[in-house]
Amino acid sequence: MNDKHLNREFVEWLSGDQLEEKQHDAMQLLTVSEDGWPHQAMISVGEIIAIDPDTLRLALWPGTQTSMNMNRTGKATLIAVHEHKLMYVRLEIRALPPMKEAIHPRDRYEAQVVSVRVDRAPYADITTGITFQLKDEAASISRWIETIAELRQ
User: Fold this and answer.
1) Cβ neighbours of residue 37 under 8 Å, at least 6 residues apart?
2) How many angstroms from the chain centroid is the CA of residue 100?
3) Are the C-beta atoms of 144 and 104 separated by less than 8 Å?
4) Which among 14, 107, 110, 133 has the fewest CB atoms less than 10 Å away?
5) Whole-number Cα distances in Å, 142 to 3, 126, 130
């Protein structure tokens, strides 16, 4: 199934709320490197927020290969597993200005949803995507809450 907007449930999941409950969930953010190869990075729920069904904001560690690729191409693909569906979200990216008073300096981006492809097998349920265990739960979630608050600005 293809669409041009994120569904309501996915937008709610990426609301930036209840991060403690979502702390083990990660997604892949794909870009294209200068030599034309796919570049994969992980992004957590504390680094992305859905503003509405057509707009996401992302906060990446400064100067990463992913940031350089997005600055160069203006494109990325978000891959997420949500509610037993594999979602491929094509994004057009534009850099946001740096926040002078940022608690956690990040490369910030606004992403317009170009298309959403949902992959679902009729004979099986996708039960999970990438998951991880935070080493310092309290510090990571605190940082995520502050990062999400800055993405809302």
Assistant:
1) none
2) 23
3) no
4) 133
5) 34, 30, 21
Element (H, E) at 95: strand 85-95
Contact between 70 and 28 (Cβ < 8 Å): no
Per-residue pLDDT of the chain (153 residues; tens, 9 = 90+): 678 999 999 999 999 999 999 999 999 999 999 999 999 999 999 999 999 999 999 999 999 999 999 999 999 999 999 988 899 999 999 999 988 888 989 999 999 999 999 988 788 888 888 888 889 989 999 999 999 999 988
- The rounded distance, in Å, linking the Cα atoms of 8 and 43 is 20
Strand pairing class (25-32; 38-44): antiparallel
Spatial distance between the Cα atoms of 53 and 11, rounded to a whole number of angstroms: 6
103 token code pair: 């608690």
* Interacting residues of 18 by C-beta distance below 8 A, sequence separation 6+: none
Q: What's the rounded Cα separation, in Å, for the pair 5 and 70?
A: 21
